[in-house]
Amino acid sequence: METTVHTTPDIFEQLQPEWNALLHTSTADTPFLTYEWQKTWSDCLCSCEGELHLMTVRDSGALIGLAPLFVISQPDKDGSPQHLLRLIGSVDASDYLDLIAVRGREREVFGAMLDALAQSTDWDAIDLWNVPEASMSRALLPELAAQHGWKLLDEKQVVCPIIQLPTTFDDYVQSLDKKERHELRRKLRRGEATEGVTWYAITGNDQTRNLDVEAEAFITLMMKSRSDKSDFMTDEMRRFFHQMIHATHAGGFLHLAFLEVDGVKAATYLSFDYNQKRLVFNSGLETEGFQSLSAGILLVARIIDEAIQLGYSEFDFLRGDEKYKYQLGAKDTWIYHVRMDRSA
Length: 344
Known about the structure:
α10 (about 295-310) links the parallel β13 (about 275-285) and β14. The chain is α+β, with helices and mostly antiparallel strands and about 350 residues long. About 40% of the residues are buried. The strands form 2 sheets. The protein has an 11-stranded mixed β-sheet, with helices on both faces. A 4-stranded antiparallel β-sheet has the order 1-3-4-7, with helices on both faces. The protein starts with a strand and ends with a strand. It folds into 2 domains: about 1-160 and about 335-340, Aminopeptidase (3-Layer(aba) Sandwich), CATH 3.40.630; about 165-310, Aminopeptidase (3-Layer(aba) Sandwich). The chain has 11 helices and 15 strands. It has helices spanning about 10-25, 35-50, 105-120, 135-145, 170-175, 180-195, 210-225, 225-230, 235-250, 295-310, 325, and strands spanning about 1-5, 50, 55-60, 60-65, 70-75, 80-85, 100, 125-130, 150-165, 195-205, 255-260, 265-275, 275-285, 315, 330-340.
């Protein structure tokens, strides 16, 4: 096997024909590790924070492993500079991140990656965030890190509530607690009785709408919905959202939904349809004029219903323990922070 570290952005174009093909053969297959997402994040955000340190593992020329890493410098608890290797997309903008390897060959691929990193002096710790609970990295890295004498931390980071979808929307509603079932039905009836309430979604198959206009409409509602979301939307992040919406649309997994009242956008959900799952990345809400309608709940109910009709297995709310997710029947899963310190 041949392990190579790439430090220039042109590696993305070189790997484009192979990237998603490898990802689809792995157990780490999520939208946040696709070529489209990783390239966009690197273009918009990585150059502001660190240096590319992307690793490939090949066997007889075939790509069998990929570690999309970059180096970021941060002070340690004593104030001394520390060089951390993180996954592209860390920490706030991507919900599931991981090392990528052909299914069934994770041990040898991850071992080759760590062997190569052991020869490098460019880093002090491998600092992996947003690693899924069932990740093969979490299963294998403790043993592989111990072989190098590195100290490993594996700690819960944050919850990702998920709804396991039944075969019909009626079955889904019936599965809710009595109080929540009653509330959802009441809100749906009120929405159906309100004149001018419609919704639509832009997907990878939709070529009729101006993506920049729709992206800006999403960002506007997102910023209106909560002050922390408004603070999050820096100029750099706005650019990322615009390019990411274009990239995921081109990749075929964008689902950008809006609920309108008499043509005025009242709520929005930005999701990804991937591997028969719908993953909700972010949302927005017009906070003036539609409070009595529960526009956000109406829209999320519609996109849950649509996901069920499409035969999807999960409706994933991704990171965050907002109350409404549990009212809609979601159950917690976890993502983890996995860190290996070589100084130990």
